[in-house]
Amino acid sequence: MQTLRGTLVDTPQLGALRIRRDHVICVDACGVISSIAPASATTPALLASATPLPRHTFLLPPFADLHLHAPQYLNAGSGLDLPLMEWLDAYTYPAEERVDADPALAAKLYTRLAQRLLEAGTGAALFFGTIGVEANLILAKACQDAGVRGYIGKLSMDQSPRSTYGEASPAESLANLHAFLDSMATLTSPLAPHERLVQPVLTPRFVPVCSDALLSSLGALAAERNLMIQSHMCESRDQMAWVHATRGRKDEHVFDTACLLTPRTVQAHVTSLTPNLVGLIKERGVTVAHCPLSNAYFSDAAFPLREALDAGVKIGLGSDIAGGYALPVQAAMRNAVLVARLREGAKREATFTAAAGAEPAVKDGEGIAEPDECSLRVDWTESLYLATAGGRAALGLPGTFRVSAPFDAQQITLAGDDGPLGLIDFFDLPCEDADDTWWRDAIERWWCVGDDRNRTGMWVQGRRVR
Questions:
Q1: Where is the Amidohydrolase-related domain (predicted)?
Q2: What separation in angstroms does the CA of 443 have from each of 59, 138, 384?
Q3: CATH superfamily of 63-337+377-394
Q4: Burial, 85: exposed, middle or buried (Cβ in 10 Å; 0-12, 13-18, 19+)?
Q5: CATH code reported for the domain at 2-61+400-464
Q6: What value does the mean pLDDT of the chain take?
């Protein structure tokens, strides 16, 4: 058992920041939280055994990245000036082919990626992998060894536009998938249940590269084996137009017909979020992976985050490596708030222009109707919820510190005994225990300018992994 004493911070609901100062948290041998209590209500013997956190330090649940193309970490930050389809052909598909063809490269790449995730505070990630079985198993092993909760998606795509990278038929795709599922079971079965950090996820890449027959088979398999599902949906106008022209249906209808929209489904992007689509997503229990950085590069519209949250859509954040070049979910938090503020500014300008009798200079595009009195802003505490509790919920993980939850935590130190850490400068650090007002202000400053230097510890399932 391990026992820690210090400040606990989490987000029990959207927009709520909970600060529990001077608490004692106990973790059992299986890495599960057995008790949480104020130090004032803790026995002297337990207090004596507790390890105190450094001053000006707090524990926060780790981030969850709901959309990350693992092989594309090979080319992160490259060629983002190109249009999406050109970028995929020039960078993405070649990177994935290289990883599938070279197990040594896959091991080097994925070992580094797992370590970088922990450095960035990401304790759980939903990965798009490659087509090949072996490379995805290397990714799973790298996550398991490092201590990252890895949700591993072997790509399914039987209608690839690239002759050298794809699967020839639905039957071949399903055979490869079953081989992957069996291999994942072999990898994790020797471990105790609480030690199993990786699991497979059904991953049809997106509608344009998957036949209806393959999608229907994946839907049936997901139901039969209670598997998670991930894909891309309603990302850009040209992609949606292509689907409608070739299938005669919208993206979401193709997925829904194949029974691939479920409470265990995560769909990335969904930037074209109409009222009807909101209703369908909520009815099916789907979670949206909001990827603000890659949306800015490759989508035709900004995801209407404020409206989606107000409508009760389940949402988490994704880095979308390598369509987004920044691996830390902390960057996605900041970008989510930034994009929402820009949308609010554009709306106000359009309202002002319309009131002056002219045509609006900026139109927000298709989507949910926006009553003039409603703000489109999202604040930092809401983005912190999405990065932690919101994303973790989509993966079936608790998003707060509570009894019976696995002890997953990142330790954030705002300042050391010798002064500030990283980029945060404090000129009025309290000598004694600070109150909630100081903590809230300090946490916001970390949210704005903190970096990896402030992350002084990470635990996953009770195991210290950094």
A1: 58-347
A2: 11, 37, 11
A3: Metal-dependent hydrolases (3.20.20.140)
A4: middle
A5: 2.30.40.10
A6: 93
